[in-house]
Structures are given as structure tokens and as C-alpha cells.
Amino acid sequence: MPESKNRKKEGYTPPPAASGPKVSPPWLVPVMLGLMILGLVWIVVTYIMRSEYPVPGIGQWNLAIGFALILAGFSLTTRWR
């Protein structure tokens, strides 16, 4: 039965070095904090004004808008480096 040929193994080649640490864009942190603070203020105003403001006529949906703003801010934290 024929024997297989011994192959010469290549030496270890490390992966290419990264170009450096990734950095967040400069607009990310102000927008992230701004959305979270705006959402908090929106919810506080909704509770103080008994759901009549900041947008009159939509009632408790003002709370949903406030929470959506806060969630949008928190979603930006996943891109922060």
C-alpha cells in the first residue's frame, strides 16, 4: 500500500496587527446623554402636568415617548468605546 508524502509545515504567521484602538465619534456621548436627559425631562413634565403636556391630546403616550427617548440613548451606549 502506498504511503502518503510528508508535507513540510509552514511556520506560524500571526494575524495582521490592528490599526489601533477604536475610538467613538465625537458626537456620540453628547447625543447619548442628551437623549437620556431629554427622555427623563419628558417623563417628569408628563407626570407634573398630569399627561396634558409636552404634547397635548395624546395622554399617556407622552410616557411612551419619554421611554423611547431614554431607550434610544441607552442603545447608543453599545457603540461607545
TrEMBL record:
Pfam families in the cross-refs: CrgA
Keyword Cell cycle: yes
Cellular component, GO, one term: plasma membrane
GO biological process, one term: cell division
Domain of life: Bacteria
InterPro entries: CrgA (IPR009619)
Signal peptide positions on this chain: none
Compositionally skewed regions (Pro residues) per UniProt: 13-25
Bilayer topology annotation: Multi-pass membrane protein
Subcellular location(s) of the protein: Cell membrane
Annotated TM spans: 27-49, 61-80
UniProt keywords, alphabetically: Cell cycle, Cell division, Cell membrane, Membrane, Transmembrane, Transmembrane helix
Disordered: annotated segments: 1-25
Family under the similarity heading: Belongs to the CrgA family.
Role summary: Involved in cell division.
Stated name of the protein: Cell division protein CrgA
Source species: Cellulomonas cellasea DSM 20118
